[in-house]
Design a protein that fits this description.
alpha+beta, six-stranded mixed β-sheet, five-stranded mixed β-sheet, 11 helices, globular
Length: about 400
C-alpha cells in the first residue's frame, strides 16, 4: 500500500494497516487514532516529512514548503551559503528523499571530479624494518623483551580520511534504504565503487569532525548533504515489533536552526553579539534552567531574548504555551520585551501585553514562500524590529 500524507494538514480519515498506524504514533511522526470503521484512522499533527516503509507499505509525507525552499533552510545553518540553485529540478522530484539523493549525487560528482581528496592518516603496523616511529608503549605491552618485530606508528598519505568516510557512509546508507528507484540506485553504486579503499565508519559513534579549508572547499556541499542523510535516515528500525526503514526530517527543527543562525547574523550587524542556546539558571539553587534559542547582548548586557517556533503550541486550557515560556525568559533576564518568531501562516503577528507585569511579547511571522534573498530580507526586518523594540524600552525607562 502507498499512503500519502501532508505536513501539518487538517485532520483527515485515512485507510491504514494497523502496523503503519502504530509506527506513525510510536515514532512521533503523527497523531493517529482509530475511527469507528475498522482499518480507518484519523491522522493529524503530521510533524515530519520524508518517506518510510513499514512491512512493505510505503508512506510519503509531503512538506508544506517547496522542496527547494526546504533545501535553502537545510543548507544555510551548517554552511551559511549552501544555496542549491537547481530549484526546478528539486521541486520536480517525486519526493523529498529522491530530491536529496539527486542533489547529493550532483554535489558528490563535483567533489570527486578530480579524484578523491587525500590526506595524512596515522597508521599502526608491525614490521622488522623501521618506518615512521617506534611505538614503545605498544612494543613493551605486546612484546616485552623482544626486539623484533617492531610496533610502528607512521603517517600515510591516503584517500582513507574522515571526509571520504562520511561520503561513503552516506552512499551506503542511501543504498540500504528500499525507497529509491532503480536509476538512482545505479548511480549510487557507481559512486560507491570509487570509495573501495575507504574504510567504513564505526557504528554507533558520532560522525567525525571534518576539515573545512581551501583544500576541502569543493567537498563541503557534498559533506553537508551527507551529514543530513546520515542524521535523518534510519535502517531496520523496529517500530512496534515491525521493521521499518525511513528518511524523515523534522522541519520544525530545521526552521529553528535556520532562524538561530540567520537572525544571529542579522542582529550582529547592529552591534553586540547573539548567542544561541545560552543556558542560565532560573531558580536560586539552579535546579531549573532556561535555554532560549537566542540572546542578544551588547556591552555584556542582555538586550533581547528570542525563540523560534515553527508552530504555535496550543492545548486545552493553555491558549499559547509559547507566551508563558517567553514571559519566564523576560522575567529571568529583566526585559520588557520578548520575541517569538513563527513561520508565516502559523501565527498572527501581534503584540501581547502581559497583565500585572511590564512585559510585551512580540510575535513575528517569517515569510518562507519567497526566494532565498526575500527570506533573508524578512529575517532582517524582524531583526530591525527587535532592535527598535529595545530602543523603545530604553525610552520608556528614561
Amino acid at each position: 500500500m502507498h499512503i500519502q500524507l501532508d505536513e501539518w494538514a487538517a485532520p483527515r480519515d485515512v485507510d491504514l494497516p494497523r502496523t503503519v498506524a502504530s509506527a506513525l504514533n510510536s515514532r512521533h511522526i503523527a497523531s493517529v487514532v482509530p475511527t469507528e470503521i475498522d482499518g480507518r484512522w484519523t491522522v493529524s499533527q503530521v510533524r515530519k516529512v520524508g518517506s518510510l516503509t513499514i512491512e512493505g507499505h510505503r508512506v510519503d509525507i509531503r512538506p508544506k514548503l517547496p522542496i527547494s525552499r526546504l533545501f535553502f533552510l537545510f543548507g544555510y545553518a551548517p554552511r551559511r551559503r549552501l544555496w542549491l540553485a537547481e530549484e526546478t529540478l528539486l521541486d520536480s522530484a517525486p519526493d523529498l528523499l529522491a530530491a536529496i539523493a539527486t542533489a547529493f549525487l550532483r554535489q558528490l560528482g563535483v567533489a570527486v571530479e578530480r579524484g578523491l581528496l587525500q590526506g595524512y592518516r596515522e597508521r599502526h603496523d608491525s614490521d622488522t624494518v623501521v618506518r615512521g616511529r617506534i611505538d614503545f608503549v605498544e612494543q613493551f605491552k605486546r612484546r616485552p623483551g623482544l626486539a623484533s618485530p617492531l610496533e610502528l606508528r607512521f603517517d600515510e598519505f591516503t584517500v582513507d580520511i574522515d571526509e571520504n568516510r562520511v561520503l561513503a557512509a552516506a552512499l551506503e546508507r542511501l543504498l540500504r534504504l528500499p525507497l529509491l528507484d532503480a536509476a538512482l540506485r545505479r548511480t549510487l553504486l557507481h559512486f560507491r565503487s570509487l570509495f573501495a579503499e575507504v574504510e567504513a565508519l564505526p557504528r554507533g559513534l558520532p560522525l567525525p569532525r571534518t576539515r573545512d579549508d581551501h583544500r576541502s572547499e569543493h567537498y563541503q556541499p557534498a559533506l553537508s548533504l551527507a551529514r543530513l542523510i546520515l542524521s535523518n535516515a534510519s535502517l531496520e528500525h523496529r517500530a512496534g515489533g515491525h521493521r521499518a526503514s525511513a528518511f524523515l526530517v523534522d522541519v520544525a527543527q530545521v526552521f529553528e536552526d535556520f532562524v538561530s543562525v540567520a537572525l544571529r547574523d542579522s542582529l550582529e550587524r547592529s552591534g553586540g553579539r547573539a548567542l544561541s542556546q545560552r543556558s542560565d539558571r532560573l531558580d536560586t539553587l539552579g535546579h531549573t534552567v532556561v535555554r532560549p534559542d537566542i540572546v542578544w547582548q551588547r556591552h555584556e548586557r542582555i538586550e533581547a531574548v528570542i525563540d523560534a517556533k515553527y508552530k504555535a503550541v496550543r492545548s486545552a486550557g493553555y491558549p499559547n504555551a509559547d507566551i508563558y515560556q517567553m514571559v519566564t525568559y523576560c522575567t529571568r533576564y529583566g526585559l520588557r520585551d520578548g520575541h517569538l518568531i513563527y513561520a508565516s501562516g502559523e501565527e498572527t503577528p501581534q503584540k501581547v501585553s502581559i497583565v500585572g507585569a511590564p512585559i510585551t511579547v512580540h510575535c513575528h511571522a517569517l515569510e518562507l514562500a519567497g526566494s532565498p534573498a526575500e527570506i533573508l530580507a524578512s529575517v532582517d526586518r524582524i531583526a530591525e524590529a527587535i532592535v527598535m523594540s529595545k530602543s523603545g524600552a530604553d525610552l520608556r525607562r528614561a
